[in-house]
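stage 2 :: seqdesign
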């Protein structure tokens, strides 16, 4: 019995070390935020990227994904997209061709590689590696369902100035529709990976996006289950670092339902077991933190289902056949824990019990992983890779509803409270220059797949009458002679925008959103700036916005190109109520700073 108690104690110690001790050691030895050798803002693009995607029946997402990649703030002659269409039976190929034609007009290379038969993801990745490895400095692997921040290539380029780094990934962010258990899991994973990153030894990367130096990218065994993990860890087998760049956001647009999450856990369990066998070279202590983290993080994760199963067997055996009180208490706790979950399922109880639910989720994940190990040893994972599920991503309707409510109340109050100011501005304009007080101009509004809204924006006139009769439609410059003295003041303080409160009230605009652009500039901007038209997709343009307060008025295409990054940052914030609220308040504060300091143009 003493022998069994010792074994039980060792097993429990390993479980505690993996979940608590390892994290504590990382906190002790990690040294905060990694410093770049060169700032992303100050470095010239020198890395030639090949962006690789495997797609199987992705008709709902492929076009959006390719447009997202076409919008990268990076020289278009320094990257190319390669899509392997793995025996798709839906309209993925047709949708990809439409996106490819659109990207070609923006000088973005997009190559489609079509295979008639579904041969599996590992096969597709190998084909892409063979096609691209010798042509690019870095291979960036990404999933169709994930959207990337548009400065991702710029940041990776800056990171790879450090010659010791072989692998780079970003911060994985789940869609707001994900379950709380999934969110907590990835919060934990992101925290662990951040600490591992400070040691240059990130163990495993999200398949949604990771980049590897081409010379360290090896072909996969086509039976590989966790292809992303094996690819990234093979790149470290002879040394080198793997890091997480916190400036890179990877937004996962698909969320697993509980049943789909369970199916994924079974497959991950099989993959974790497989990769221990495949990556034996990482047990080499000469690899330092990479080896230590691999054993502490992934090896223990892979065998954890077996350890827990042994703990359960030992506890119940000792409770039945001995008088060890500790075993009886342990069995009672386990029975209570699982009994609560069973009761909730039988009676369809949705109330959350924070600690109990988290522990049950973790235990369920491990026992599903145990089933994955059994299936793997039975040879069930020799079939081709398949998606866990398909789904449609929808914009958060609650945010749009709240935003419209704020717009109605805010614009109505603004028109009432600011009416004396507007009257003074109107009188001043009338007394100091000839012509109307207000002018209206056609602008592009909210867009969708099938419709683009056009509306007339109202503004206080800040230029002389007929300012564009001779020159035609041109951007205003900083010292534009067409601007009147009063106009210069109201543009600096943004008072010229106040009549747009009426546009907000009637629903043409929002208080905060992307800048409404003139149709006359649209064809030029769409040609020169990839994905420009998508900046108002599903979002009304705003009186103020992140791009407006960060960059001011547009004077050229370069200004518009710089602004689009801020517009996309705002769009990404709408994926989460918390981030959206923070963004709205930030823009409001910066708008007030511009108004009261006269920092507008």
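stage 2 :: out
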């Amino acid at each position: 019995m003493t022998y069994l108690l010792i074994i039980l104690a060792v097993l429990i110690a390993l479980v505690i070390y993996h979940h608590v001790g390892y994290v504590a050691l990382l906190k002790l030895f990690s040294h905060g935020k990694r410093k770049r050798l060169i700032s992303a803002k100050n470095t010239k693009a020198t890395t030639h990227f090949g962006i690789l995607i495997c797609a199987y029946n992705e008709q709902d997402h492929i076009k959006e994904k390719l447009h997202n990649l076409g919008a990268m703030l990076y020289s278009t002659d320094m990257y190319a997209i390669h899509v392997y269409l793995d025996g798709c039976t839906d309209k993925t190929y047709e949708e990809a061709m439409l996106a490819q034609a659109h990207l070609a007009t923006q000088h973005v290379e997009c190559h489609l590689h079509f295979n008639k038969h579904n041969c599996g993801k590992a096969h597709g990745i190998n084909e892409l590696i063979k096609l691209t490895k010798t042509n690019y400095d870095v291979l960036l692997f990404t999933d169709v369902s994930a959207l990337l921040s548009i400065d991702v290539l710029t940041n990776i380029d800056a990171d790879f100035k450090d010659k010791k780094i072989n692998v780079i990934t970003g911060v994985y962010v789940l869609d707001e529709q994900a379950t709380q258990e999934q969110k907590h899991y990835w919060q934990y994973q992101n925290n662990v990976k951040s600490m591992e990153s400070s040691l240059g030894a990130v163990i495993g990367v999200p398949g949604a996006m990771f980049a590897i130096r081409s010379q360290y990218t090896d072909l996969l065994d086509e039976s590989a289950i966790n292809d992303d993990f094996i690819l990234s860890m093979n790149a470290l087998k002879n040394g080198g670092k793997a890091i997480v760049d916190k400036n890179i956001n990877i937004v996962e647009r698909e969320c697993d339902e509980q049943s789909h999450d369970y199916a994924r856990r079974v497959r991950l369990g099989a993959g974790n077991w497989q990769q221990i066998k495949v990556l034996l070279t990482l047990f080499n202590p000469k690899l330092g933190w990479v080896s230590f983290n691999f054993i502490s993080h992934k090896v223990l994760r892979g065998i954890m289902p077996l350890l827990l199963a042994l703990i359960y067997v030992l506890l119940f055996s000792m409770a039945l056949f001995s008088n060890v009180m500790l075993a009886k208490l342990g069995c009672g706790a386990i029975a209570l824990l699982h009994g609560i979950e069973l009761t909730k399922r039988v009676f369809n109880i949705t109330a959350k019990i924070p600690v109990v639910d988290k522990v049950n989720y973790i235990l369920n994940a491990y026992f599903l992983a145990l089933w994955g190990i059994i299936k793997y040893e039975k040879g069930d994972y020799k079939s081709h890779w398949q998606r866990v599920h398909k789904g449609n991503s929808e914009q958060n309707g609650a945010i749009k509803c709240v935003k419209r409510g704020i717009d109605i109340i805010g614009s109505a109050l603004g028109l009432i409270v600011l009416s004396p100011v507007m009257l003074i501005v109107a009188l001043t304009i009338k007394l100091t220059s000839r012509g109307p007080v207000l002018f209206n101009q056609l602008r592009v509004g909210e867009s969708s797949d099938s419709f683009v809204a056009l509306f007339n924006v109202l503004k206080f006139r800040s230029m002389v009458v007929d300012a564009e009769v001779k020159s035609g439609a041109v951007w205003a410059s900083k010292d534009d002679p067409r601007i009147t003295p009063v106009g210069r003041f109201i543009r600096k303080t943004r008072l010229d925008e106040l009549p747009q409160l009426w546009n907000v009230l009637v629903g043409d605009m929002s208080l905060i959103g992307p800048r409404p652009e003139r149709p006359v500039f649209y064809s030029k901007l769409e040609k020169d700036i990839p994905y420009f038209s998508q900046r108002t997709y599903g979002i009304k343009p705003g009186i103020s916005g992140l791009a407006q307060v960060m960059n001011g008025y547009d004077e050229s295409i370069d200004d518009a190109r710089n602004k689009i990054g801020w517009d996309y940052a705002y769009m990404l914030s709408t994926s989460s109520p918390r981030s959206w609220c923070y963004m709205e308040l930030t823009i409001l504060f910066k708008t007030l700073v511009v108004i009261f300091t006269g920092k507008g143009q």
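stage 3 :: structure notes
- The two ends are 82 Å apart (CA to CA).
- The longest strand covers residues 241-252.
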